[in-house]
């Protein structure tokens, strides 16, 4: 049994490939789960590979790829956030490199990361209205005019 399954409430487990599963947990447990994976002797994660986001219209998903070089293994942890006013806890305190992934996701998907003290647009101009990777994003003539 997986160490995450033993310690945290699992919403679902989805196979990614023959070697790995994506473990979806409640978003309120995210910070504790990531910290546990970093500090546990069983896994001792030392690298945050990436944070990715997906839009399912009714909810958004964040997927964290955490790596242990000691074990040469990945853990894929995911959470769902509401699509209206989406928020998640920042994990910058645990992995400093999360700051840029969180800023990119904020910029493109509009998810606000509480605890990220530098949460501002990273890729798009500050004048951009909306978040272009959301499925309900519509680029109108008004938005185009404001960005020129």
Explain what this protein looks like in three dimensions:
Strands 1-2-5-4-3 form a five-stranded mixed sheet. Strands 6-7 form a two-stranded parallel sheet. It is an alpha/beta fold. Helix content is 23%, strand content 31%. β4 and β5 (73-82) form a beta hairpin. It has one domain: 2-Layer Sandwich (Beta Polymerase, domain 2). The protein contains four helices and seven strands, in the order αββαββββαβα.
CATH topology, what is it called? Beta Polymerase, domain 2
Please state the second-level CATH architecture: 2-Layer Sandwich
Record the strand order, biggest sheet.
1-2-5-4-3
Name the structural class: alpha/beta
Overall outline: globular
Number of helices: 4
Can you summarize the main beta sheet? 5 strands, mixed
Number of domains: 1
What is the tally of beta strands? Answer: 7
How are the secondary structure elements laid out?
Blueprint (H helix, E strand, L loop, with lengths): L2 H5 L2 E6 L5 E5 L4 H10 L7 E9 L3 E10 L4 E10 L4 E3 L8 H12 L2 E3 L26 H7 L1
Parallel strand pairs: 2-5, 6-7
Antiparallel strand pairs: 1-2, 3-4, 4-5
Task: Please tag this protein with its features.
31% strand; two-stranded parallel sheet; 148 residues; alpha/beta; Beta Polymerase, domain 2; 4 helices; 23% helix; 5-stranded mixed β-sheet
